[in-house]
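Troubleshooting: if your tokenizer reports a length mismatch, compare your output against this known-good record of 208 residues.
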Amino acid sequence: MNDDDLVGVGLDLRPATLLKAYRVGLFPMRLSGRTGQLGWWSPDPRGILPLDRLRVSRSLRQSARRYTVTLDRDFTAVIAACADPARPDAWIGEDFVAAYTRLHRMGRAHSVETWLDGRLVGGLYGVCVGGLFAGESMFHRATDASKVALVRLVEVLTSDGVPGRLLDCQWTTPHLVSLGARDVARAEYLELLAAALELPEPPEFRHP
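Known-good structure output:
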């Protein structure tokens, strides 16, 4: 994260504002912690996970057999876990939880949940607009639980064989790079985004 990644400050978290932001390559995050000013970010470089480059190791495949994975079964619990203030660098405040829960009720924000013996042990959530899935946050309470959720998300985004969908990771991390994520220049990201927005949402995420 650097100063050039921040392109605006202010506005609000209403659904129309958020959806417009994602369509032009922006996403919101507070400038400091959970209560700072609302910033709008466009990283350069931008982290993406090419759907045909997902790396699933033998150990991850073995881990996946332990878990049950669901879609949109408990968005509330997933975003609450991601927003846990005890997490390092916690930034998701109550206003973000409320805003993305509204998007979920509109069929625009989605969660992937990982379960072990009936307990929620990992997951992720993000926003789907056309062929874009903008990943927002993920968590795990058991080995590989968030990675298993990500594998399931890629399956959803590719299940109908439509090429060109875009999985936005915002910034790459060693965790994401190990799974195949890479950095692209902002200009390239915006080209990929424009093409992805012309595509249909994956069947599992289509809203009425």
